[in-house]
């Protein structure tokens, strides 16, 4: 990490799982991996789910979206970067916007989007997420609450039940529905593996461009660690055995290098 | 063009339309744009549709696919490059494989796939083709025979009627079916424009990465010139008026620089 820079603050929502540094959300992992990829000094400020809106308003962070009634929606990850301006920190919300900001503000040592490939990477992320993560997304969301700190659980359960229109225990019940979701995920990951390996002349290719990850690969690893944290027994124990164990190799390759939680 | 290199031969199927150098197929345009983008000396060898298989077999070119009965399918574009080996030319069939070959064999002056972005570009091509070209593809295929040379028409009509399971005149009849196809295309192109411009901070961005095209942009231009050649009145006259005329600007930017037919 560069010692000339002041530490950047990353706002995150804590889990109860210390084994992963209390961080659990794939969107937070995207930003953590990106900060470590860039070698930027940073620290975490923990905010429980019900306190996110008030906290973000108090620091002047922008909302990430608008509700149907036009009211602002505040979310994490949010980044507060004191380095570019001495008068007020740069405040960026949303993992995608943060990645674009980091690449523009800190182009070295390596770009997250080499050769201006943001649109191309976004399209690839959308494709593999649709193929491989989509089938189990509801199952994963249903399991998140078991990981959260006490202060966050009721808020999370209430908002997700409202958003999905069903009780949290019904997000993906054990049985044929879950079996079908896992089968679809395995098939989707198989297609992703084929596309990656075609790009590597038929040899196993973990990453979407060269031998080092770009941002789309950090996003993929973020989905994998999310699965590992929230659905170790239900999903990850299966995923890591599929396709010659390549998904565990992909996650390990990213996490060992860029997974430290500060 | 580099004078130290021997001319590469591009095998193409002629149209009757001299205004576009007798070339019409989007797959041929992809290779023509790529050869000119690389500044490589080349010439065209014209082969009528019914003669493609025999010609490709006679020069030893690989088939591009297999039929259901296992027999080889021969297609154009095929490239014969005498430069890498003095004993026998490199023979490559299929516009995508040709593009990969050209980038590997002739990395300068500019890469078609900067930062090893072949998989990423392939995903973007698939996305905009699904959104914008897919809705009118059958209509365009139905109009191709009007452009072909006499020797190619019966073969083309017979094989396409068999492949699509309908008479060529029914590929997209004038009326509600065609109106719906055009409306879907306009909507799809609108989404493509949004994605491109998001990548350009909201300003019009013709290309998917920087201010110069990469291979995915040459492929996009190849679809546009195909539309212009085979469906000038029916489709192109509309497309060029949509979204502030940006599709004509995109095609012109590529074609004026890389559109010469040798």
TrEMBL record, chains A, B:
Ranges of residues in domain GST N-terminal: 15-110
InterPro entries (alphabetical): Glutathione-S-Trfase_C_sf, Glutathione_S-Trfase_N, GST_UstS-like_C, Thioredoxin-like_sf
TM region(s), chain numbering: none
Stretches assigned to coiled coil: none
Protein name (database record): GST N-terminal domain-containing protein
């Amino acid at each position: 990490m560069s010692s000339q820079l002041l530490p950047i603050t990353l706002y995150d929502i804590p889990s109860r799982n210390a084994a992963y540094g209390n961080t659990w959300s794939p969107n937070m992992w995207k930003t953590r991996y990106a900060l470590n990829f860039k070698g930027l000094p940073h620290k975490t400020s923990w905010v429980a789910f019900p306190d996110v809106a008030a906290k973000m308003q108090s620091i002047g962070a922008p909302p990430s979206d608008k509700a149907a009634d036009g009211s602002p929606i505040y979310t994490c990850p949010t980044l507060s970067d004191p380095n570019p301006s001495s008068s007020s920190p740069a405040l960026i919300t949303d993992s995608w916007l943060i990645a674009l900001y980091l690449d523009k503000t800190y182009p070295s040592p390596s770009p997250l989007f080499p050769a201006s490939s943001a649109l191309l990477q976004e399209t690839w992320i959308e494709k593999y997420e649709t193929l491989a993560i989509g089938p189990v997304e509801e199952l994963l969301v249903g399991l998140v609450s078991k990981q959260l700190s006490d202060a966050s659980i009721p808020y999370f359960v209430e908002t997700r039940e409202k958003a999905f229109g069903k009780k949290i225990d019904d997000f993906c019940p054990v049985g044929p529905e879950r079996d079908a979701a896992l089968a679809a995920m395995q098939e989707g990951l198989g297609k992703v593996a084929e596309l990656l390996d075609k790009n590597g002349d038929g040899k196993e290719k973990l990453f979407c461009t060269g031998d080092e990850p770009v941002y789309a690969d950090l996003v993929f690893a973020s989905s994998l660690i999310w699965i590992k944290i929230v659905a170790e027994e239900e999903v990850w124990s299966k995923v890591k055995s599929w396709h010659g164990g390549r998904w565990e190799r992909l996650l390990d390759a990213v996490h060992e290098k860029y997974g430290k939680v500060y």
